[in-house]
């Protein structure tokens, strides 16, 4: 167990609570129709926050979509999360992505890409680049249990092993891929045995134990960087929430199963009890933190929601590095159409 | 280049020797040596590609090559010959057999800032990686709000070869040409191959570079300028290979050679054909195409790929939209037959355009007939 100081564990806990708060309120906002889609990390807060705490901020992260905790740890603000979900004028993605498809070049978090497991070979490519540059860094890629069925999982694992690339493959085995339970996803013993087949050193950890996740990722990162090799970590956990706002998981799992994990096995509660045991936290501090984070999340939404949307010009930019003439022409044509039909043009999209 | 110079010496010595020997022999030697001594050189498309990649790898450490058999085997079609020996295994990677794996890896490396050249043994196999080409490479700059560039080149043979049947013969120009975010290049001769490859490697956007297996071994004369390491061609500009007044044939890749041969034959019958070598499917040089059609008033598109939604369909649409009143006849497309490519040599010949088809005269005579009709 590595040395962990009080400040670090408290920061981990506070981030986990903030993530829960953001998830609850943003989920409700989607249900109210304020944005089109949302996806929560309920039950998996420890994996993303504690693992991010064990990485270096310069390690490149290639996430699936259930890892905003990593971004949050690195300093992505509630405003930045809200701007992306509301797709407003401050969205770094310039309004091109669905909600929760965050990205941040400055925080070394590659923009979320929807197809499952495609980020795994990307992470290997980045790790190979680190190796060629001889940088003491690794890339870390996150994915669920279902993603290990994809062809890209196979290609990435094999490559990482053959190239001896410093990649951390962090699997959130949360028991479900939308409605497909893990025992219908694969017949082997979970994900950890798959890594061994490729010659990749693999670990299994209790994903709901924040300190265990931290310790494992810390050790794994050291191995990956110092020995230039890939490591697979299977973090066992449970997806407490629905797959996304497009899902109603009550249709395929029992209420008491969800209830059990939510009440008896919750990673946030577990860490809280440990902190209280150390005398580093108490229920007053907890109430205060929850009230504060709730207000901050609401404030962020209230700031982000009414803002203007992305300007019309951003329909056409970034298709290529420099805008080609035919798109300039199309923009001109669009603007003249808008000028002729001004009354039909939305008020919140700047021209 | 070095190879060519070392071949010069015995010939030069013989010619300078000049001991009054056989004049005819000297003349023959002179004629043979002229191609080495003149300011024009002749190189194959393969040599053009190899030298372009070699020079760009020397100039920029970030450029590296990856694919099946590119290293030890010297390349399945020998396009990467000598590169492993020169640059080492860090920059010329022999990959396991997983197109999805190495394409994804290449895209990831490009996202980080390297400049990979990913070889597909044929673009037919790229279908196993096409999600990475489209969703991970083409769309990423846009979807990341301009924060993630993917300066990658995907290259390999495309389209029909000879006797390799349906799963090795598909032309993907129309598929990739449809995707915003990609640049799609289609070199024909050695000058195209050198200039476009260098431009592709230097370009910050993902480039799909569609070569042709049967062109690799073909030699073309190139000027000194083309051989210079700084030579590039602009992406998105077509080339008028041959000027003409009666008919515009717009085509790309191997079919450029066929169009030029057809133009020679038609010239004997008094029909003057202008041949436009697209060089680039996306961006498509609509200005050059339309300017040519406005001059000749007749358009024929020529491609080996399938007719429906093919490259010709887009060219015809562009011309009908922009130059309708200049047309003296309906636009025409010549394409491959709408079937998976058969294997048997006689069937394969019938499934792709030919300059002349002997007694069958199917496609060859269609060109002539249509030109003749159109020119009336």
TrEMBL record, chain A:
GO terms for molecular function: branched-chain 2-oxo acid dehydrogenase activity; metal ion binding. InterPro entries: Alpha-ketoacid_DH_E1_comp (IPR050771), DH_E1 (IPR001017), THDP-binding (IPR029061). Its EC number is 1.2.4.4. It is an enzyme of class 1 (oxidoreductase). It is found in: Mitochondrion matrix. GO terms for biological process: branched-chain amino acid catabolic process. Its main location: mitochondrion. Keywords: Metal-binding, Mitochondrion, Oxidoreductase, Potassium, Transit peptide. It catalyses: N(6)-[(R)-lipoyl]-L-lysyl-[protein] + 3-methyl-2-oxobutanoate + H(+) = N(6)-[(R)-S(8)-2-methylpropanoyldihydrolipoyl]-L-lysyl-[protein] + CO2. Its cofactor is thiamine diphosphate. Heterotetramer of alpha and beta chains. Belongs to the BCKDHA family. This is 3-methyl-2-oxobutanoate dehydrogenase (2-methylpropanoyl-transferring). It comes from Ceratodon purpureus (Fire moss). The lineage of its organism: Eukaryota, Viridiplantae, Streptophyta, Embryophyta, Bryophyta.
From TrEMBL, chain B:
Transmembrane segments: none annotated. GO terms for molecular function: metal ion binding; pyruvate dehydrogenase (acetyl-transferring) activity. InterPro entries: PDHB_mito-type, THDP-binding, Transketo_C/PFOR_II, Transketolase-like_Pyr-bd, Transketolase_C. One of its GO terms (biological process) is pyruvate decarboxylation to acetyl-CoA. Its EC number is 1.2.4.1. Keywords: Metal-binding, Mitochondrion, Oxidoreductase, Potassium, Pyruvate, Thiamine pyrophosphate, Transit peptide. It catalyses: N(6)-[(R)-lipoyl]-L-lysyl-[protein] + pyruvate + H(+) = N(6)-[(R)-S(8)-acetyldihydrolipoyl]-L-lysyl-[protein] + CO2. Residues 43-218 form the Transketolase-like pyrimidine-binding domain. Its cofactor is thiamine diphosphate. It holds the Pfam family Transket_pyr. GO terms for cellular component: mitochondrial matrix. CDD domains: TPP_PYR_E1-PDHc-beta_like (cd07036). Its main location: mitochondrion. It is found in: Mitochondrion matrix. The pyruvate dehydrogenase complex catalyzes the overall conversion of pyruvate to acetyl-CoA and CO2. Tetramer of 2 alpha and 2 beta subunits. This is Pyruvate dehydrogenase E1 component subunit beta.
